[in-house]
Design brief:
Distance between the termini: 41 Å
Strand content: under 5%
Order of helices and strands: HHHHHHHHHHHHHHH
Number of strands: 0
Radius of gyration: 22 Å
Number of helices: 15
Oligomer: single chain
Shape: globular
Amino acid sequence: MRLFAVTENFTNFKYKERLKNILLNGINAGITPIFSLLISLLIVRTYGPLLWGDFVQILLWLNIGAHFAAFGSKEFLLRKFSNDPSETSTLFKSSIEARFPIVIAISFGFIALPYFGLIRASWLFLWLFFRFIYQSYDVIIIWRKKFELSILVEASIGLVLLFALKFWQGNISSLNLIQCFALAEIAKALFMIALNYQEYFPSFKIIFDFTQLKESSLFFLIGFAGLLHSRVDQLLATHYLSSTSLAFYQILMSMLLLCQSIAHFILRPFVKNQYRLSEESINKIALQLLLIGGLLSPILVLTTGFILNYFYHFEITGEIIISGFIFIVPFFYSLAYIYSLYKMKVEKQVLWVNFAVIFLNILVLPFVFPLYGINGAIIFAASLQVIQAIVFRVLAKRAF
């Protein structure tokens, strides 16, 4: 009886810990977009949309630069850490050294472009450099499950930035915004260094280690292809839909993609274990995620429909509700097998699947949009998700 009680308590603790990590990871992933939204609303309402529009163009360049500076390091290092846990500090430092020349090259690119000017380019270099440092610690946060630490840093600096812009005296320019965001990034990076300096102090030697960059390049390309995958349909929609329909489609797809990302929130805290599991265990996780997705999706889709109808006054059809459900659920199932392909070091297959989906979108959507409109596009997107889930399951089975 006592043994049963101890076992039950341990099991309850284990599931509470898992739930806690999932919730904290979700908050950690969502806190930055929330502060970005609040700051954008503040700027638009206080100073007008023109200032924010000018700043967003610069922010786009910065984000592209940051994506190149990361160069797929997070997923690459998670796999490396799982295979060699005793070398996490060495691997972390060598990753920064290998990617540091990319930051320098991008910074020279900013300076060379006449669009920015020397002063803007200098601040962009500071912003990018400290973003590079700060985002390098993402893998450490996930590996050590220190989500509270990241949330504390993001919330503290985010609030300071928000209040600084709220009580700004006089006029504000896009350069002032760049300076504020760069200073916020510097503060976040310094906080993260200070909190991890004993084991994970970054090294900034300029070493052209093309071996590590080559190994992580597929993860970089997968991330880049994923970015294209999530945008190519919306780019095509601009040519075939009216302004109102386009706004509806872009908001709808953004919300559905956000619903899909919940699968990442659930699995990401346990990725390091995923790299050590057998095929049987991964199959069980995939089915568990499928069940979770199946239970959550009706709530998510109906909530999305309510928001679009009540706040945006868009009409929601039965086809969109059903297709939205089908769009979300297969991704929960796919994700476990995507990580299993990473585990087996055949991530190139994930890349080819992403490129195939992009190609199908480019090939089919120009016919779907004019003939069937948004309903047809959502049905097509949902169908692709089902096909992807089947393909990833087959590829994972072959890899094992």
